[in-house]
Design a protein that fits this description.
Elements: E1 3-7, E2 10-13, E3 18-25, E4 33-39, E5 46-51, E6 57-60, E7 68-73, E8 78-83, E9 92-99, E10 116-117, E11 121-126
């Protein structure tokens, strides 16, 4: 089974930067896509960004465009989310997710569209 483990969360002042990482273990496939979701207290989990196995970005939420960058290093089995210019509304638990047969033209907005999940890492922007 595939396992995803996030790390790198923490407390950051408004306007600061943080990079979270997700290490993937287990069997994946050539079209295995990766994404970052986030979930704030009492809110539903929402898609932040997604990237293909080849590194092409499929989606950024409008709220993070120009501030966040998703990437992956397949040699290290790791996906990243670089977060810059953090805002209070970015405060959430950030989860990495994986999906088999990911396509850049697909629609994977819902958490139910993703196959594997990490345990989450807390990112807090202290205003």
């Amino acid at each position: 089974q595939v396992q995803l483990v996030e790390s790198g969360g923490g407390l950051v002042q408004a306007g600061g930067s943080l990079r979270v990482s997700c290490v993937v273990s287990g069997r994946t496939f050539g079209s295995y896509g990766m994404a970052w979701f986030r979930q704030a207290p009492a809110k539903e989990r929402e898609l932040v960004a997604g990237v293909s196995w080849g590194g092409s970005v499929a989606y950024y939420a409008d709220s993070v465009k120009g501030r966040f960058t998703i990437s992956r290093d397949n040699a290290k089995n790791t996906a990243y989310l670089q977060m810059n210019s953090l805002k209070p509304e970015d405060t959430a638990v950030y989860y990495c997710a994986g999906r088999k047969y990911y396509s850049l033209t697909g629609d994977y907005m819902s958490p139910h569209d993703w196959d594997n999940w990490g345990q989450g890492t807390q990112v807090t922007d202290s205003s």
